[in-house]
Amino acid sequence: MSEEPRKGLFRRKPKDPNKKPGRLAQMKQVYELSAKHNKATPWLLAAAILGCTLLGLLAGLLFGGAVFTTILGFMVGLLLGMFMLGRFAETAAFAQMDGQPGAFGAVLNTARRGYLMDDKPIAIDPKSRDLVFRSTGRAGVVLLSEGPKGRSAKLLAKERKRHERILPNVPVHTFQGGNEEGQLKMKQVVPAVQKLPRKLNKTEVLAVRNRLAALGTQGTRPPIPKGIDPNKARPNHKAMRGR
Predict the structure, then answer these.
(1) Looking at the DSSP assignment, which residues form a beta bridge with residue 174?
(2) Which of 8, 88, 96, 126 would you label with 81, given CA atoms 20 to 30 Å apart?
(3) Containing structural domain, residue 54
(4) Residue 178 falls within a domain, yes or no?
(5) Which InterPro entries did the record assign (predicted)?
(6) What are the two backbone dihedrals, phi and then psi, of residue 141, each rounded to the nearest 5 degrees?
């Protein structure tokens, strides 16, 4: 009497659509994005790795220990290539988001080091659709506008006065995001925010956040464009809020 084979014993488990891609899958996405925007990406990465490896070999031939220095040079080249890939992907991501409503808010959201950002605009002009985004951190409150320089300046000034009235002893920093003279471009937003001097401790930051909850928002809230987060394009970067 023969037994029927068990069906589905070695059947693969269905893939979870909500499961995040692994590190290799993420790196593949980053590379594809970079190569699509910059055709020279593979050649530049290869030059970085090969150049460092050859330098390591040359150092070994001159001073001894060629095997060790060659491996060391390769590892240095690999790290350099990873750093370059992250920068290329960041540039590509900014170019991909450029011109979309809420793009500067998405960029401001990458300033994770000690900052907590409201995930949607705190103010919007119903006519012009100019936006103002807010992030809170150790430097105080950061307000970033998105829109033409002359027009968005009025909305930004209004929000600054409103915040200073509610938080009289907390620094309120304002920036304009855009491509006009005097505005911050996408790649300049995060460095400008992270250069601000720290004035608050973690307890004070939390108190400010609770106080800001009473401000509410002005107008409707358009969504921030989704896409590859430039912050994730950098290898070995722990994107943890509030740190």
Answers:
(1) 143
(2) 96
(3) 23-95
(4) yes
(5) DUF4191
(6) -105, 135
Same domain? 84 vs 125: no
Residue 221 maps to a domain: no
What is the average pLDDT value for the chain, to the nearest integer? Answer: 77
pTM confidence score = 0.61
37, 85 in Cβ contact below 8 A? no
Q: Say if residue 69 is in the same domain as residue 125.
A: no
Q: Are residues 125 and 180 in the same domain?
A: yes
CA–CA dist 144, 130 (Å, integer): 11
Tens digits of per-residue pLDDT, 3-56?
Answer: 555 554 445 555 555 555 666 777 777 777 777 777 888 898 899 999 999 999
Tell me which residue of 90, 180, 95, 169 sits closest to 130, measured CA to CA: 180
In terms of domains, do 128 and 202 share one?
A: yes
Q: Which residues contact 155 (CB under 8 A, 6 or more apart)?
A: 123, 125, 130, 132, 145, 147
Whether residue 110 is found in the same domain as residue 193: yes
**pLDDT tens-place string over residues 136-158:** 888 899 999 988 888 888 899 99
Q: Specify whether 29 is located in the same domain as 73.
A: yes
Query: 148 to each of 100, 129, 156, 193, how far by Cα in Å?
Result: 14, 11, 12, 20
Residue 8 lies in a domain: no
**Alpha carbons 81 and 34: distance in angstroms, whole number:** 12
Specify the number of domains making up the chain.
2
Q: β-pairing, 131-137 with 115-117?
A: antiparallel
State the average pLDDT over residues 84-105. Answer: 76
d(CA 40, CA 12): 39
